[in-house]
Specification:
The chain has 2 helices and 6 strands, in the order ββββββαα. The protein is α+β, with helices and mostly antiparallel strands and 117 residues long. The chain has a 4-stranded antiparallel sheet with strand order 1-4-5-6. A two-stranded antiparallel ribbon has the order 2-3. A hairpin with a 4-residue loop joins strand 2 and strand 3. The model has no long low-confidence stretch (mean pLDDT 92).
């Protein structure tokens, strides 16, 4: 797990109660992808121990990314340090997805009886 470099705020609301918490520099996070989606875990282990796990399936995550793209385009600019960090991370994600896509296509082409689509 990595130290959270910035801050996260989480709120979960139910009809009869709500849970809210913050995660900052003294907390840790993990993000991973699996065959069905992406998972994000936030952990706080001080006097107010908290853990949050979220798993989002790939289709919903793609829709979230699209909505974020629209929101960023429509809103005032993000400050330079955050914008540069977001851009670099988005480029790494795009590069990783592209590499996996190309590897999968190469595997499909090399299998006997398979046609490239």
């Amino acid at each position: 797990m990595k130290v959270i470099p910035d801050k996260a705020e989480v709120a979960v609301e139910f009809p009869d109660k709500a849970y809210m918490g913050t995660f900052g520099h003294n907390c840790r996070f993990e993000a991973r992808a699996d065959g069905t989606g992406v998972a994000i875990r936030l952990e706080r282990h001080d006097s107010e121990k908290r853990e949050v796990d979220v798993h989002i399936h790939h289709g919903l995550f793609a829709d979230i990314l699209d909505e974020l793209a629209e929101a960023v385009a429509a809103q005032p600019p993000i400050d330079t340090p955050h914008r540069e960090a977001l851009l670099a991370a988005a480029q790494r994600l795009a590069g990783a997805l592209k590499a996996k896509h190309q590897a999968a296509r190469a595997t499909t082409r090399s299998e006997p009886g398979k046609k490239d689509s």
